[in-house]
Amino acid sequence: MIRSFVLAGAIAMIAGIAHAEEPIVGNWKTAAGDTAVIASCGGSYCVTLKTGKYAGRKIGTLAGTGGSYAGEITDPAAEKTYSGAGKVSGNSLRMQGCVMKILCKSQTWTRL
């Protein structure tokens, strides 16, 4: 009985490690003060605004692992899409959007 309980606990622990979410998944406060949710979608990560003037709008798709991600980011105010990247460091997410990988702007988001 005790043996099977320990085995079941070990299996649950391993399964939890195998299915751990990427560091980018979660709710983030943007530089503008809105809340963005980043969630797994179709093999990548979708960035959707949850609050603010553009609430409900998908503003990006990123792919990657281990805290470094790349894809596309959309500026909802300008309605322009740029090549983008995100880098997670603790509770900070540095988002960057670039035109032709030369002209880049970045901002830091904070995990909520």
From TrEMBL:
Domain DUF2147: from-to ranges: 67-111
Native organism: Rhizobium beringeri
Record's protein name: DUF2147 domain-containing protein
Coiled coil: none
Keyword Iron-sulfur: no
Keyword Signal among record annotations: yes
Signal peptide boundaries: 1-20
InterPro entries xrefs: DUF2147 (IPR019223)
Keywords: Signal
TM segment ranges: none
